[in-house]
Amino acid sequence: MNYKDYSDWFGMQGFHAFMTQRQEIFSKADNRKAIVESFPFDADKLAYPKQVHSNRVRLVEKPGIIEETDGVISNNKEFILSIQVADCIPLFLADKQSGNFGLVHSGWRGTANDISKRAIDRMEDVGSNVNSTRAIIGPAIHQCCFEVGPEVSSQFDDTFSITGKDDRQMLDLKSALWHQLIASGIKSENIMIDDDCTNCREDLYYSYRRDGKKSGRMIAIAGWR
């Protein structure tokens, strides 16, 4: 299986963070347990959200589907977290001090509504320290390919857009999220941005913008073992 391994960057022995790349057999969410087992994690401990492009973040208290949410965090090392993406940003979070961790599906709606701040606040509620929290902004659509209308661009500061065709704007979602993480108190040296554009790199990633409804999904996974 093709995947990216971000585990070493977090520098937490026993903590692992992965994101699958383009792979047909694992493109559907209902195959997620097979992905988890291949790393290997205990699939019976898997928790994942039923994503709805919201800014809701929930603390995982038991394995299984977490209804209508787009961010999951855990202060229990037994649980394995995952989300699915295909252009939206997979945001990995982990605190070196407490061991708490999270995964956030941050599309333009979630980013516009500060889902990252909600995740960081929830992690702090259960004992995390923002000064020791690290974040990875994973592969997602870049400004070069993310053309949006005024109904979307108007929800972001003008500094995150450049002019496109007619009334369209090219939105830099990763930069918007980076600034939100900084505003939430995460140190700049504790944020890593993966520069891959999912729309450009057809060889590596699925892209809803490029492929439409037929697009597969990448799966982000985080947990302890």
Written description of the protein model:
With 225 residues, the protein is an alpha/beta fold. The chain has one domain (3-142, 186-224): 4-Layer Sandwich (CNF1/YfiH-like putative cysteine hydrolases). Helix content is 20%, strand content 29%. The protein has seven helices and 15 strands. It has a six-stranded mixed β-sheet. Strand 12 and strand 13 form a beta hairpin. The longest helix has 11 residues, at 115-125.
DSSP summary, beta strand count: 15
CATH superfamily, by name, is: CNF1/YfiH-like putative cysteine hydrolases
Reported for the largest beta sheet, the result is:
6 strands, mixed
Q: What is the percentage of strand-forming residues?
A: 25-35%
CATH class: Alpha Beta
Strand order of the largest sheet: 1-2-15-7-3-5
Number of continuous helical runs: 7
Indicate the multimeric state.
single chain
Class based on secondary structure composition and strand pairing:
alpha/beta
Name given to the CATH architecture: 4-Layer Sandwich
- Determine the fraction of residues in helical runs and give it as a percent range: 10-25%
> How would you describe the shape?
globular
Succession of helices and strands = EHEHEEEEEEEHHEEHEEHEHE
Structural domain tally: 1
Distance separating the two termini: 20 Å
Backbone CA Rg: 16 Å
Q: Taking all residues together, what is the mean pLDDT?
A: 95
In the predicted model, the low-confidence regions spanning at least 5 consecutive residues are: none
CATH fold field value:
CNF1/YfiH-like putative cysteine hydrolases
